[in-house]
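T9SS type A sorting domain-containing protein
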Amino acid sequence: MIVSFYARLRQAAPLLALVAALSTAFTARAQPAAPDLHCLLLPLDPALRVQQAGLILEAEVRDAQSFWDAGHRRLYTRHRLRVFSLLKGSVADTAGLVLITEGGRLGLTQQTLTNTLHLEPGQQGVFFLSPAPWPGLPAESGRLWTPFGSEQGFIGYSLADNTAREPFRTYPSIGAAFYQELAQLTGQPRRVLQPNPALRAAQALLQAPQGSLRTKAPSISDLQPAQLPAGVDAVLTIVGNDFGASRGSGFVEFKNADDGGATWVKARESDYVSWTPTRVQVRVPSAGEGRKPAGSGRVRLTTGGQLQTESPGTISIIYALTNVESTEGNLLARPNHVASNDSGGISFRFSANFRAQPAPGAAWRRALNTWRCQTGMNWRVGSSIASNAIADDGQNVVAFDNASDALPAQVLGRTTSYYSGCYDANRQVVFYVKEIDMQFDDAANFQFGPALAIGALRQIDFETVALHELGHAQQLSHLIQLGAVMHYAVQPGRNTRSLDPASDIAGGRRVLRERSFRQLGCGGAAMLPAPLIRFSARFAGGTGIVLSWATRDECFLSGFAVQRTNGVDTTAWQTVATPGAGQGSGQYQYVDQQLREGLHFYRLRLQRPDGSFDYTEATPVTSEGESPDFAIFPNPVQGERLYLQYPAPASGAVLFLMYDALGRLQRRTQTSARQGLNVLSLNVTGLSPGMYVLRWRDEQGQGGSRKFVRL
């Protein structure tokens, strides 16, 4: 039988009773947050945390370096800590104590886990550490540690206002009372090992008279607009007075959506658009400093003179799209999904321990169908898998935890998103979702339904949390918006089994329409909009262009439109047929008998019940057949663009070189192509009239050439 954290917690009940009085005294002084679960976190008892931690210390994160485990299946991040003081245990190395966290970034590969501690260099706080339990970690000269309970094993400091915060508690001041309360739990006094100059400087600045810094404090009078999304470069305009002639060391902060606004999230350096004495414009981040999303609430502005003001009014973040950060930390990109199964979508597989219980699988399927039938996300449940492993293995697994792969203490579940990236023709990084795994605690007090969870029984509705975690899989971040599925918290007895149209659905639809239903250059083919599972267009001699498509479990669908271009211009589409949708699953076909010479494109438009549309990627077809050769058209070239019909053997970058009749290089261009037939547009502006040779070479070293005439 699997023994989870909760079973171990029940076994520890007598011990916990002994320390309950100390725990109560400690939490009475700390300011408790709302009783909601933060995503899928339950509050961790401070006394249990102290008892389980082998080492408790006050420290600063010096660095972060990600690495693969021995099996090259999981990423971890190694941090060195600068230790300032000791509250439990002993430590010899105060400059390089090694701490390991789950997830990381290495090159163009990333693994991000919900409900898991992420640390950045410069962060300070109190760490409750236990030995790192994972196999395959590199050998170190000393013991490897990890925060007990992951996110709840760290009390983070906010030096700007001398406060501290963990997921369910806030501390109004970092001072003698704070350390004394910790000492009451540990049973030993705090031992200072070396000074903490950053904390001292921040505290001194707060104690300095405000008039010595600046004579007039800033004020905010208006925020425009009042509603906007995060993570899509939406710009907030802050109107007021005395912001300073330039930003300098000033900054703007938003409420942290991950903790319901208990803490603040700074905008990144790249988010600032303009800064004047009366007007500041800043992009609203879904991955601000610390990779936290901006949430609804007030906005705080700090001037270059370090004077601070909060807005009297609030903003509403209607949805937040996940952003992926480059390893260098200087680029944020919205990832897209790619098709990874034979139905143009993504298949999840139930693990052995998850499939053994029918009720969890049924609830999870209901949650999946809710997203599929309200956003068009092409998800399905595939065949089960014997393994329970959560790892980078090419399988999208849904599993319960077990003794060998247990979730951190008081974590009911989490989603792991595996990202990979490539460089497009403009040398810009494109990230895509390579894989998604979900893991749930096997002994949590879940109500699997279809009956509703009951608050009096402290039941947690499994369909609600599955719906929320699938929102993360669809690449949505947390909100502070009660009633939305992506609201940061859930309470026992709360049943949220439908998506909010203005937030959950709108955000999910934007991810799909702008990213996942389009071919963005790497990772695989664009997803087909559900319920579509197949679409093809081919030339049939003596018949015309035959278009075929199929659907599965039709929902969120009113009808189709077959659309065609008259040439290579994929900005101008003509509707040639409007077949109606069927019921359940369908097989469809349409024959276009109006043959066009040369190359042109077809696509299928899906009309949704809400009046919106989704489109398949443009499919090229020629009247010569299904496997056209390389061809330049028009040839001779009269305008400023040359079009190359290019059947690429694999996706990737292609280098094009244009030589004149004397063999002199005249033009060098690099662009990206996807596997299959492409129509690539090359600029010939400035080329003199005459004969030219176009040569190309792809990333696999294959190439070719064609002649063309420039008129």
